[in-house]
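To whoever is on call:

I kicked off a structure prediction for a single chain this morning and the downstream step that reads the tokens threw a length-mismatch warning. I double-checked the sequence; it's 274 residues and nothing unusual in it as far as I can see. Pasting both halves so you can look.
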Amino acid sequence: MKIKKANVAGMFYPADPDELRLIIRRFHAAVELPLFQGHILGIISPHAGYIYSGQVAAYGYRALEKELPETVIILAPSHRARFGGAALISEGSYETPLGIVEIDDVIGKRLASERFFTDIPEVFNMEHSLEVQIPFIQYSFPECRIVPVIIGTTDIDICSAIGNAVHEASASVKGHTAIVMSTDLSHYHGYDTAVSMDQRAIRAIERCDPEFLQNTLASGAAEACGEGPLAAGLSACSKSGNTEVHVLKYANSGDTAGDRSQVVGYVSAVVTGE
């Protein structure tokens, strides 16, 4: 069985398992969830170092705990490579300081047979945006399996096709499969500018319309480094009907562990539907 080793333990999150559990436990304990209705299809989660975005990320995972998903499909952006589809690990397992999490090879192999999904192992090397989600999943859902996907494009048609494949693969298996869309928002603006840009991004995300979101980002009025995962994930969720986005928490690095001259924005949200 192939085991994918962690790349950024000790950099983006603690390498010591006891310390890692403690920090996630503290994040979870500080969460106060707003009220929302509906079955959770997926969450939107940030991917910076835990000292910056971990508290925001905890909101989505705490909300998802009521659903107890059996599989989580992680859609994350590529920060180091661009390619025309989605890189996938379809079988094996992923190891972090919290142990080994199995990859759902039923969904993984089905996705591997779909157009735009391919095996590019090197894309996962040193990519933090996917890996930082996994300890939260392991902590909240110890028996859960994952499907790791890194999206290398923002092309709206390709992202829509990826989202459709994710929806169909999820619907083909028993049990609840949830989607994690990994993204940060604006990067390296002053605090007030970042807040304004991020609110525009959040309003676009709340529309649950990938094309409207892409147009908002293309205009420069807002930023999101996970544009591809958002487009694919929202497309997948929208197939279920009556889709709504509920924002749980917004903050930026100026609110957490950084100065306010150049901040990065973070949002945690749930996507609900039928």
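Update from on-call: the warning came from a stale cache, not from the record. Cleared it. Sanity check on the structure: The two ends are 36 Å apart (CA to CA).
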